[in-house]
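dumping these here so i dont lose them again. two proteins, back to back, each one seq then structure tokens. dont judge the mess
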Amino acid sequence: MFAAVALVSLVAGCATVRPPTVAPPPVAASAVPSLPATYRQVAFSALPGWNDDRLQDVWPAFQVGCRALMKPASATRAIFENACADANALDPRDAAAIRAFFETHFSPYEVAAAGGSTVGMVTGYYEPLLAGGRAPTARFVVPLYSAPDDLLTVDLTVLYPELKDKRLRGRVDGRKVVPYWTRAEIEGGKAPVADKVLFYVEDPVEAFFLEIQGSGRVTLADGSVVRVGYADQNGHPYRSIGRVLVDRGEITLDRASMQGIREWGRQHPAELPALLDENPSYVFFREVPPPIPGSLEAKIDGPFGTLGVPLLAGRAIAVDTRSIPLGAPVYLATTYPLSTRPLERLTMAQDTGGAIRGAVRADFFWGFGDDAAREAGRMKQDGRMWLLWPKGAGPPSS
């Protein structure tokens, strides 16, 4: 659904949730999410590195995002309609025209938390590759499950609006709805998932990290590669196993990363299942069909995020939709992992994550492969965010 993943946030797996409800302009207080945040309009010249950003690089992500935002059922259609319509006339190779487009159609708003802080945390995530098969073998024994039939989604928001941002999952036990099985209980055979195996993979740690990332690829014995994406979750909160290991004194804080946890698992195979069970959360997957050849989705070639569009490496972020509307352009100013080198660019808020909570909070999508995994695994940087909001839609509010 991932940071310099130091303990607390080895995590931010991108789990799919529904987009926020956004009303047509003029923007009412309910149009933008309800997390306490403030938005201060600034000039584009106030965005660090704005003039140096290659805005044409984000253009495919903006275009594919418009397709989702312009669907008839989209609650954000009226807000972005003019901008998305005008985008169709632009040449994607015309850097000057794309820059003029953003500066003409949007106004930047600096995002601040309720207490006034404009600095938050930026972590990273990636799309992993696992080896596996559709049937178990001596090598591939770790199952990836699709959602079980007895997993219920409990929606009480009509009666209890304060539960709007809670993912309530359960199962029926007699005449009661009770919490769904925990990770330990699912692994122990209590959940009816025996016929729900999508694939078998080799390494339980890699399967665990796949849950955290929320999507990935599986390469099969015949050389073909299939994608899996988030389908559902058992409703239990995520608990960082990095934090568990640090609290036990098993590893030091500087080793509480994906790489450090992998190494611990290799050294303690007998203790690994119990460690993974310390996290009661469990993610179920679905097989994602390949995009149509030659389509914009195929050119982007990324996993699908919460908005329902493929994520462009280096230009997509996961956000807390209570402060950043899903699908909106967001200018991000942070630094590369473990450095002071500026990472300043326009991104698209096209994903969410279970650990992405806060007004100034982003999870940066690094892409696919070993390099992306390395950067994502050690990213936990300070960052600032500016929401690009369509002109004429009224100022954002929370």
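---- next one ----
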Amino acid sequence: MLTITGATRILVRPDQERDGELHIADGRVAREAPAGAETLDATGGVVTAGLVNAHHHLLQSAFRTLPGTRGVAMSKWLPTMAAAYAEAVIDPELASLAARIGLAEGLLSGVTTVADHHLSWPSSADSVGIASATVEAARELGARLVFVRGSARDDPEEAAASAEAILEAVLPAHSGGVSPDGMLQLAVGPAGVHSDSEQTFRLLGEVAERHGLRRRTQANEQVDVVIALEKYGRRPLELLEEWGWLGPDVTLAHLCAVTDAEIARLASAGVTATHAPGCDLPMGWGIAPVAALIDAGIPVGLGTSGGGSNDAGHLFADARLAMQVAPLVGRPLPAREVIGMATAGSAAGLGRPELGTLEVGSAADLCVWDVSGVTDAGVADPVAGLLWASPGRRPRHVVVAGRVVVRDYRLVTAVEEDLVSALATRVGR
């Protein structure tokens, strides 16, 4: 039970804001103050829904700024990362340590839900152990997790069997792949047509259909288009449509190189999209035409991608970047619209309408952003200022499912220094 008091502004939705108090009961936004509620002071702050990182690779949090991974072609980046993975040995312990870092970084920057597209599964790896370790890391830190059993050149039948085993191990009593408390969700997702076969897409699609799971993949980065044309003589979205992977339960990340006709095809199919500018720009993949996607009726979320391409898991930093580069490929994106992408837009791609807003009945995931300091001085619109001002902004408080997990800029659920030390001991950095 919690009551948020003193906020300058409460952003209920990107197009709806108010002042006053915000009440939380039983992990949900409530209409009235619950009896005996704790008070959380938001004086001088703007309250928003918790941010939803719709596309991350948590394992890569242990592999940031590696030599040979910056400013290089994908053909060099992939083997460099693969060599680093092999040297470090991907196992449940490493998955746990990296996930703790990535999830803690997210919470400290306002991200309450992370979709982790896990793509690295060595042939001898304990896939259930890796998934379970990641799930346990999220549970201990108090973050919501969407664990995506991905594939990158994996054997199709092994990938499908692994997805089934993970589901049985970590979410046996599921409804549409979501735990009863909403803190865990499972999905499936090949890396893309550039790496995975039609059989992989079809078999993982069958797993999703059997269990009501969401499907997620990456498409139309420039390299994806080039490889698809070289290998199949066709563009990625043509292949995805033929392979049964364009539909309302599918979310496509990146979408940098899409034509007007392809945008119309995506809108007709009912897919959702994820923009990841903090990855796409430094990798040289281009800029997704976000405004055109939105104007076509496609819900667009926001993701950071992983530490191998975007060394920060700070979603608001990427939201700011998305807002700044948008005019280069279409119309400008107002700050409120981009904040909407980082909240309700990302939640839509997960099939989770209870996330990303602060309406009565919504999940009580929220951030309190202090706008009273020097970095916000002179700001006329404190909501727009969340993105335009203070690029490294961090929330004062973060609440997930009604539980305070960051208080006064510090983790409540773990000691930050211990997380850093544990990873450094394992990887030597």
